[in-house]
Amino acid sequence: xxxxxxxxVGLIGGSIAKDVKKLNPEIIIFGIDNNEVxxxxxxxxxxxxxxxxxxxxxxxxxxxxxIPVDVTEMLLPQILDKVSDETLVIDSGSTKASICxxxxxxxxxxxxxxxxxxxxxxxxxxxxxxxxLFVNKxxxxxxxxxxxxxxxxxxxxxxxxxxxxxxxxxxxxxxxHIAYVSHLSHISAFMLGKTVIEKEKNERDIFDLAGSGFxxxxxxxKSSPQMWTPIFKQNKTNVIETLEEYISNLxxxxxxxxxxxxxxxxxxxxxxxxxxxxxxxxx
Amino acid sequence: xxxxxxxxVGLIGGSIAKDVKKLNPEIIIFGIDNNEVxxxxxxxxxxxxxxxxxxxxxxxxxxxxxIPVDVTEMLLPQILDKVSDETLVIDSGSTKASICxxxxxxxxxxxxxxxxxxxxxxxxxxxxxxxxLFVNKxxxxxxxxxxxxxxxxxxxxxxxxxxxxxxxxxxxxxxxHIAYVSHLSHISAFMLGKTVIEKEKNERDIFDLAGSGFxxxxxxxKSSPQMWTPIFKQNKTNVIETLEEYISNLxxxxxxxxxxxxxxxxxxxxxxxxxxxxxxxxx
Lengths: 283, 283
What we know:
2 copies of one chain form a homodimer. By secondary structure, chain A is of the alpha/beta class. Chain A folds into 2 domains: 3-169, Rossmann fold (3-Layer(aba) Sandwich); 174-279, Orthogonal Bundle (6-phosphogluconate dehydrogenase C-terminal fold). Helix content of chain A is 48%, strand content 13%. Chain A has 11 helices and 8 strands. The first copy, chain A, starts with a strand and ends with a helix. The model of chain A has no long low-confidence stretch (mean pLDDT 95).
């Protein structure tokens, strides 16, 4: 494995580049991005060695696709068209069903591996890329049986050097569960931020009163709308379901308060408190 | 100032004890708590020197009240009854209107200072107490004009050694704004935790898929129901208002999704993104 192409040199693509560079010193990492400024940043941060274009993909041993999920869905068939029979193509999108569907009948389906490395920060772009981002994080791999044996093996070598723990799921189950444990958190944070900003827009110094608890709960509202809009679009049905349940739980909490039923307010919180144990495993 | 009494030797009381100890080496810190185990822990952690009872309060130069807000409201008049004319009594509750109201006509009102140090973690109890918890954090002080001059000065000396920044507000304004920047975040986190736990109760390994984003957004759901139920009760009207606005924003987001209006989904997120700048000042 010598020529690695990273399509999308942002937080995820850049962080993967930093890790795969360690595989062997002869590796050359090529960056492809429609944002020329990002490409120059990636070069000066030295996590890519050269700029490249789609026409160069026939030279690739490995292609990492780390761009918004709607663009992945659109470009992935064309990427597979261009690569050789020996090339491994991996995506890192936060949705899996639409992306797997987009290439299900592609003649080079066996060259593709659908993955979702559960790692990131609320920042984006090349400067947000960091070494070791994936250590001890979960990597969800979908439809591994559709990928060629030796390419499966190559992928696992890469994920091992990244320090990730593998979990195998089908794309529909991935999208359903990830709506709960990831997508809903983002909407919860964005709408919390909106609610507070709207209320306090004329009294900005009120944010002096916000503590670390508010900062933590609203942190994901810093995330990129460019990245998250297509995720919500592709996972629409599941996300709407999570929102309905979340709104219903909030409404019930409000009704308990209106009824001065503070015993049930207490119970609602106590029953959720054991999230402590669940969260202990998450870094 | 020699004899300092801490009523409630948990996260906040304990952390204040650790800081005031630095005022001078002759200070003796007495702990009062209805939880005998907590008192023993506080002694072995050495942030209190001795155990004490309410009957000893006539010896106090300073009393710090750091117990659930409903108990503060109930006990504060009795505490003021017991202390001397020279004693400063400070509370640290997350609500201020009910507590100020409870002592508004007390003959020793001038011995009391109502404060809300905006600091904490999601943990509770003596073991959660930490030195330096309050450094660079905001301390909201209410009705300072009702506190005796020389006791105001004594309080400011203490807050200075704790490293806090003072903000002065009236109790009603405090309760209204803190509902947005603190109380709503807690409910948002508790109900997010509930929604995900309910959905995944039969598939606990699904939490392997949860990343640091989920952990951050749901962190406050580890908070103590004992402490938070009375806060929501005392600040009921304001909290219900914040919940109505939050639910309305979430519902609007869901409706945009149902209508495939992803331009507005994008706008909702982009308009909230500037929370980045606001959060920069919060540690």
